[in-house]
Amino acid sequence: MTLVSSKSIFNKSIKTKASLGVAVLVTSLSFQAQATTFTLSNWVPPTHFVTTDILNVWAEQVQTATEGRVKIRMLPKPVGTPAQHWELARKGIVDITWGNFTYEPDRFKSIWFAEMPFNGEDVEASSVALWDTYETYLAGNPTYAGVKMLGVGSLGPGVINHGSKAIVSSEDIANQKIRMGGPIQKRLIEELGAVPIAAPATKAFELLAGQVLDGSLHTLESVVNFRLTDQLSHHTLIPGGFYDGTFFLVMNEGKWKRLSAADQATVMSVSGTVFSRLWGQTFQREIDQAYAQLREEGHQFSQPTEELMSKIGSVRQQMIQDWAAEHDSYGIEQPLEMLDYYRQRYTDLSK
Question: Which of 138, 181, 196, 331 is deepest in the core (most CB within 10 A)?
Fold first, then answer.
């Protein structure tokens, strides 16, 4: 029978605890080493609802879903202009960016179908329908190479806003100087007999104050958030929207591929449809709140005459035909089939 001294047992216990402590420390350090932080360039202010209620929320969801293995660090200021953000991600200058497809309309002509008149008034439905359409028809298109699409979203129904009168007929809008952005809006304004003035939404206040403009195209949310409520008091609500806008959230493809397959799947579990739904719900809330605020402040809301609606419809139909005829230039074999798919998805989602 071998006797083991209490001192020996004590020493072994100390060694065991020390070994366990080292193991825990190594495991902790290993976990920290595996955590990956991606940079995100954001071109709206930190107080803007896109920052606080969409991008920050999504970044937190990513970190939570991956148990801290993937983190998003928003840069203190944008790396480039809004129109440069697709390239910033594609070239890997920053890891993640978001932006407006309309800022590069020729490059993203394949997505024009989602910016036409009568796109829809349910922003959540249009955003998710756009994601489904991208996944089905555009994910393999060379235009979108070099990045991983993490989500898309819609702007919501565009409104004809005027500083002094209701725009309800073609006669009302004729010769009016209207701020617009992008080729679809430009053609609509021209075809309706108005004078298009190309300028970013951020310049609208200055141009309206200087009487360079008579009116400006915005969603109701933008009228409020760009502080144009004093300059634009008349709003023509076109059923289905006068136009729409489309947005992206993308990551550099090389950076995306560095993630494990498991983490890629986890990130996408809170991106894609989930992100597009978050985007649409947030924009819808902002539009609804803006409508209520403008109503309370005594703004005038008008509906277009049948004559104006018919003319907008005719312009829309011709634009769709012209867009479809150029399908070879943007690499879509059946553009009208894609459009029909998008419209059906919107209808199903908005029920």
Answer: 181
Q: What is the C-alpha to C-alpha distance for residues 320 and 333, in angstroms, rounded to an integer?
A: 15
Please enumerate, as own/partner, the contacts of 132-138 that have beta carbons within 8 Å and a separation of 24 or more.
Answer: 132/273, 132/341, 132/342, 132/345, 133/338, 133/341, 133/342, 133/345, 135/272, 136/338, 136/341, 137/332, 137/338, 137/341, 138/110, 138/111, 138/332
**Architecture of the structural domain at 35-154+245-286:** 3-Layer(aba) Sandwich (3.40)
- Say if residue 86 is exposed, middle or buried (CB neighbours under 10 Å; 0-12, 13-18, 19+): buried
Do residues 157 and 121 touch, judged by C-beta distance below 8 A?
Answer: yes
Residues 243-286: tens digit of each pLDDT: 999 999 999 999 999 999 999 999 999 999 999 999 999 999 99
Residue with tokens 């493809």: 253
pLDDT in tens, 279-294: 999 999 999 999 999 9
Residues of the chain with CATH 3.40.190.170: 35-154+245-286, 159-243+299-349
**Domain 159-243+299-349 CATH (choose: 3.40.190.150, 3.40.640.10, 3.30.950.10, 3.40.190.170):** 3.40.190.170
